[in-house]
Design a protein that fits this description.
Elements: H1 16-19, E1 39-44, E2 51-55, H2 59-70, E3 74-79, H3 87-95, E4 104-112, H4 118-131, E5 140-144, H5 155-172
Parallel strand pairs: 2-3, 2-4, 4-5
Antiparallel strand pairs: 1-3
């Protein structure tokens, strides 16, 4: 909807996103001919990617570091807007994958799998995978085990879960 007045952008994100050294934009990104991008796509490694990672939020920067260490061919789709879900844009990216038989689509999040964006995104992405005739028509997830609370309350538990999470990511890559 077009309005004749300007409305401020409200970001609901952790403060680390404001301070992270990799979370920067050039002044050109704020010029008059630019606009908000619901998804951001990065292709890493040489050759055609058969692995696609979807993520949202600050986990992208840790993923980028893990990918650079392993140097695999992988496409990372950062979902910057969960609602309304940018289905058409994501489907366009998934359609670019040539080998739909061996392709793997994974959602990565640091939060528990019963929290954050995975459950919501899965409904949309699974439908896309089916429409695009992917052999594996179900998006997988790498995240912490389901929990009833946002944090465990114990630093050692958190560190163990974090280490487990990133070992799964490196295995996928």
């Amino acid at each position: 909807m077009l309005r004749n007045y300007r409305k401020p952008l409200v970001i609901a994100a952790p403060k680390i996103g404001l301070k992270h050294p990799m979370a920067v934009s050039s002044l050109d990104d704020f010029s008059h001919h630019t606009s908000f991008q619901p998804i951001l796509v990065d292709n890493f490694g040489e050759g055609k990617s058969k692995k696609v990672i979807l993520c949202s939020g600050k986990v992208y920067y840790d993923l980028k570091q893990a990918i650079k260490e392993g140097d695999p061919a992988v496409t990372v789709i950062r979902v910057e807007e969960l609602a309304p879900f940018p289905s058409n844009l994501i489907q366009d990216q998934l359609d670019k994958i040539e080998d739909k038989v061996n392709a793997e689509v994974m959602w990565v999040q640091e939060e528990s799998i019963n929290q954050a964006g995975f459950q919501f995104a899965k409904l949309h992405v699974d439908r896309m995978l089916e429409n695009l005739d992917f052999e594996n028509q179900e998006m997988q997830v790498i995240g912490r085990e389901s929990q009833h609370a946002f944090v465990t309350g114990a630093g050692t538990d958190y560190k163990a879960q974090n280490q487990n999470l990133w070992s799964k990511v490196k295995k996928f890559l």
